[in-house]
Design brief:
195 residues, 6-stranded mixed beta sheet
């Protein structure tokens, strides 16, 4: 394996809640190389080639025309993320085909954007790995994701960071939405304990 491939395979998977993930509509490459990784720009000022997401798989559907192409709807305490897997993600495709929702799942994957006919940009996750997990794993993910989101919000004032600058240019810069997401997510843990 070349050193370039090794560095790509070690790309950090960012923990991000559904609203911020779905708002990450700007993508970019850091070089003109066709094989360079594609990054989603998180509105909190971080680049993400890979994302780690945990939630409840609520439904699956084969949305392919001629070939199997499976869609999974995964809900965290703050919103919904869609994952898509086909012939190039055989393990994830098989998992979605055989899953019996609702179940807790963990997904590591690459953000993908596509423009709709009316010009909106939708964000989805192409899974590299997907597996069933416990409720305790989901709760731990919520806690860790809340902390990482707050860290990114706090670092957003660092005007010398090129990704923060890019996020300020590409998005509206209002991070209150993501602070509220953290509050909602942490409150859901208290609801879990009280029920």
């Amino acid at each position: 394996m070349s050193q370039n491939n090794q560095s790509q395979s070690r790309e950090l998977a960012h923990r991000v809640f559904a609203p911020e993930f779905n708002d990450s509509t700007h993508t970019f490459r850091e070089t003109d190389d066709e094989m360079a990784p594609v990054y989603a720009l998180l509105p909190t000022g971080e680049k993400a080639n890979r994302v780690f997401f945990v939630g409840t798989l609520t439904e699956t559907d084969n949305v392919g025309d001629k070939e199997d192409y499976w869609q999974g709807r995964i809900v965290d305490p703050t919103g919904t993320v869609f994952v898509y897997a086909g012939q190039y993600q055989p393990e994830a495709e098989e998992f979605l085909r055989e899953a019996n929702p609702p179940i807790f799942v963990a997904v590591t994957g690459k953000p993908r954007t596509y423009e709709t006919d009316d010009g909106d940009v939708n964000v989805s996750l192409r899974p590299e790995y997907i597996s069933e997990v416990t409720e305790a794993t989901r709760q731990r993910w919520v806690t860790e994701t809340a902390a990482q989101t707050l860290d990114r919000i706090e670092a957003f004032d660092n005007a010398s960071d090129p990704y923060v600058q890019m996020a300020q240019e590409k998005y509206d810069g209002d991070l209150d939405r993501y602070r509220q997401t953290v509050i909602t997510a942490l409150a859901s843990l208290e609801d879990d304990h009280s029920s």
